[in-house]
Design goal:
- By secondary structure, the chain is α/β, with parallel strands linked by helices.
- It has two domains: 103 residues, Rossmann fold (3-Layer(aba) Sandwich); 106 residues, Rossmann fold (3-Layer(aba) Sandwich).
- Helix content is 33%, strand content 25%.
- The protein has an eight-stranded mixed beta sheet, sandwiched between helices. A two-stranded antiparallel ribbon has the order 8-9.
- Helix 1 runs parallel beside helix 6.
- The longest helix has 24 residues.
- The protein binds 5-O-phosphono-beta-D-ribofuranosylamine.
- The site of 5-O-phosphono-beta-D-ribofuranosylamine has 15 residues, from helix 1, strand 5 and helix 6.
Length: 215
């Protein structure tokens, strides 16, 4: 089995990044994390990745003239490390349609809500304010529109009385840490792929796209 060379793009603490690196430390896992990139040099996750023995680089968007230049720097590093798949994990920069198209079907993201509900920021606050009873997280292929794109997998979390954005975020994050490694494994092994604008599963019986949350 050849393991897919995978980069993780972060902007912050990198807890999803850690869960992916840990899952990929098993030799049988179909992806190998070869690079962690951050657009913020001070991102906490960069130190974590280094400690875990992963190559890291900061590509500071602030010192680049515009998105195209920033992405050109990202692309140089991705090519240097012969990256085949990209995982966005708390990466807070919008990517241009041309960069997204370059990586079409090879770039995935995790979002802390059950898409298509609650695209964008402050998802937990918004779900609570709406009185939603079910919330969760989604891994999807990245398309040019933010937080859109064909869904690979979702996990649901029940909202309970007394939940605050913090308590809910904690339970959703715990599910993210299970869902993202499972979704990357399915994509890296080719069991789940993007065909046109649809997600195709090799064996729908084996690859659930919905994982009931444990909470
Ligand atoms: C997660 O909630 C993820 O779903 C969202 O950003 C947050 C990143 O957290 N895209 P972390 O940096 O992985 O801890």
């Amino acid at each position: 089995m050849t393991r897919k060379r995978t980069a993780i793009l972060i902007s912050g603490r990198g807890s999803n990044m850690r869960s992916l690196i840990e899952a990929a430390s098993a030799p049988s896992y179909p992806a190998e994390i070869v690079l962690v990139l951050s657009n913020r040099p001070e991102a906490e996750g960069l130190g974590v990745a280094k400690e875990l023995g992963i190559a890291t680089a900061a590509v500071d968007h602030k010192i680049h003239a515009g998105r195209e230049n920033f992405e050109a720097s990202l692309q140089v590093l991705l090519e240097l490390h012969r990256v085949e798949l990209i995982c966005l994990a708390g990466f807070m920069r919008l990517l241009t349609p041309s960069f997204v198209r370059l990586w079409e079907g090879r770039m995935i993201n995790i979002h802390p809500a059950l898409l298509p509900a609650y695209r964008g920021l402050h998802t937990h606050e918004r779900a609570l304010a709406d009185g939603a009873k079910i919330h969760g997280c989604t891994v999807h292929f990245v398309v040019p529109a933010m937080d859109e794109g064909p869904v690979i997998a979702q996990a649901a979390v029940a909202i309970v009385d007394g939940d605050t954005p913090e308590t809910l975020a904690r339970r959703v994050l715990a599910e993210e840490h299970i869902l993202y490694p499972a979704a990357l494994a399915a994509v890296a092994s080719g069991r789940i792929k993007l065909v046109g604008d649809r997600v195709v599963r090799e064996d729908p019986e084996q690859d659930p796209h919905f994982l009931p949350g444990g909470s």
